Amino acid sequence: MALWGRMLWSFLSGPGRRGGTQGRAFSSWLPHRPPAGLLNATELVSHWTAVFEKRGIPEARESSEYIVAHVLGAKTFQSLKPVLWTQPLTSWQLQYIQELSSRRLRRMPVQYILGEWDFQGLTLKMAPPVFIPRPETEELVEWVLEEVTQRPGLAGAKGGPLILEVGCGSGAVSLSLLSQLPQSQVIAVDKGEAAICLTRENAQRLQLQDRIRIVPLDVTLEGSWAQLLLWGPMDLIVSNPPYIFHQDMEQLAPEIRSFEDPLALDGGEEGMDIITHILALAPQVLKHSGSIFLEVDPRHPELVSSWLESRPDLSLHLVAVRKDFCGRLQAVTGLLSCLFRPRFLHIQRSGPQRDCPVDARPGPQPTSVPY
Amino acid sequence: MRCRCLWGVARCLWLRRPAGSPRRYRSCGSPLLEELFAHGGPLRTFLERQATSEPEVRVRGRDLVAAAQRLSDKERELRETEHLLRDENEDLRKLAENEITLYQKEITQLKNQIFLLLVPSEETDANDLILEVTAGVGGQEAMLFTSEIFNMYQQYASFKRWHFETLDYFPSEIGGLRHASASIGGSGAYRLMRFEGGVHRVQRVPKTEKQGRVHTSTMTVAVLPQPTEINLVINPKDLRIDTKRASGAGGQHVNTTDSAVRIVHLPTGIVSECQQERSQLKNREMAMKKLRARLYSMQLEEETSKRYQARKIQIGTKGRSEKIRTYNYPQNRITDHRINKSFHHLETFMHGEDLLEELMQSLKDYADYESLIESISSQN
């Protein structure tokens, strides 16, 4: 029986199966198989929750709910049709849940296990080691959308802004901006090949590929920005750059440390390495009075502010700092305490523009990029 | 005092009218419309007063006065033509008959027009709505019934081509539903749906019952108008938004998948939650939608509670505790207790199509009628 199940599973979980098995061979050892007779969704969630809890897996209930819901074709357990709660599962569904859950036992993030996650209103493909977008970044996008709609100056001369995203990862920020700003165009850059591929794939899935240029580019390399000038001055730069202080990297949870690309997380000694590169590059590519929106560490607003003061030549000014989810309360040692984390920066450019070809908007993609 | 008498009379007349499609009573000169326009009745008095009063004291616009004038002209012409029916000349009699049919048609149209001009419009008429269903007395059986009712409204929304979005959904272990809410939008959605609020009662042998006994269980429906940006303004400072994100640095430092959001409106203590979506932002938007609808319906209730107190068809909180409808399976019957109207073919009814539509329309017509009588009485 077990052999039959295994054969069936290997057949069903062939390459390209939903959930992105990464070609990993089917594990011949099946730990924590639920006892016979446990066959419906609710019981399986309880079973796997208990297993995860016992093995110290964080978010045990959420993880098992997401896995079971995913196998049954829903995004969340709450959105599952009630019939499916109690309906017996087929043997391949049981096997599939078993396989996904065993990945969770190896601390793989749920987003990678499911092979997809939601950001703003979009469902995006997720694949290791490309950085998984965090909920805070949804707020960064919200802020950009607010500013673009409230200040027509930001929207650019042609109806929609030309936006540069540095470090696009899965494409979450770029694609949600594109989908909500129908006139906008985006140049998305990343130095990771996996990120470039994933952004491209997500853009195609969402049919947004016509308004996005996805460029492999390392902003830390001298003169790398030059090729961006081809598309003309940007109205906006958006980025969720790696901002974790290097010494904090060791303390990250195994889900992050062992699965996500450290290059998308490690911001150097003070978490400022990439931030300063973006700021140094900004005046070259940003139009006069263009804006930069960044997600940063709560310690960064001050550091960025003083760094900008030390670089008056950049003509950049920190104009606003925004906290994430306002008024969030958490139980800390039995008392409710308020946590506000300054998280987002709006930096604006002023002063004369340098070396920027005016009004060269994205045309046909150049075949070779002059350096 | 006089108001109460009028309502009593009106209600009796309405309930005594012959059975048939309720939609017909206004469109082809039903007894109700005839009674409403009876000579010497309150509506006539009201219309006469409107016609003779100075323009500036007229309660309603020129349209109403003009329609009332045309109505009385047509009625006079009809009476004059009726004499011709006794004429010796057969051709003339035939001509008169044709004329009379035309007059009657026109008169009915005018009465309908006056009726529609008089039914007061509500602030919420054009709003979208939030539907909430909650299982009541009866354990698992009540939850099963709640799930059926929720499906019925979902099917009705698609029947009407309205937008339907589930905001939250808490199923029970055996496939029932403890509580759910949905946002419904579309032309006239709230106008029709608002009369669904209240306690719905089911009588049947539950699936869980082994001895074949009939049980009575209940569930509650609440229909809250969805406020527009102008209808309701919330101060962000009055809100506390809780998410279950890890403490500490947040952002790139943690990877949480728990996207549940809980919003507390501090001045009222109203709590709104959502964990329907994987995106926290989406959950927050949905929770906010529900919260706004609750606050708005509270605000509306304060404004209108006095006006609605005497009405038979209640909406808002007061209506929520009232038993409005019974679904009796052994008798294959649905009865709406407010208008004492019964339907058969329960299963078809639960499909959320024509039969449900017909009942909703009856309720709406009756409510329109009540508010018309009310508005006339307060001005007479």
Please give a handful of descriptors for the protein shown.
heterodimer, A: 371 residues, alpha/beta, seven-stranded mixed sheet, two-stranded antiparallel ribbon, 12 helices, 11 strands, 34% helix, disordered C terminus, B: 380 residues, alpha+beta, Alpha-Beta Plaits, 2 domains, eight-stranded mixed sheet, three-stranded antiparallel sheet, 19% strand, disordered N terminus
Secondary-structure-based class of chain A equals alpha/beta
Provide the residue-averaged pLDDT of chain A: 83
Oligomeric composition of the shown chains: heterodimer
Nearest-angstrom radius of gyration of chain A?
Answer: 23 Å
- Main beta-sheet strand count, sense and barrel state of chain B: 8 strands, mixed
Strand content of chain B: 15-25%
Structural class of chain B: alpha+beta
Measured as a percent range, the helix fraction of chain B is 40-55%
| CATH fold description of the largest domain in chain B | Alpha-Beta Plaits
Count of extended strands of chain A: 11
Radius of gyration of chain B: 26 Å
CA(first)-CA(last) distance of chain B: 13 Å
Number of strands of chain B: 11
Mean pLDDT of chain B: 81
Characterize the overall form of chain A.
elongated
Q: Order of strands across the widest beta sheet of chain B?
A: 2-3-1-5-4-9-10-11
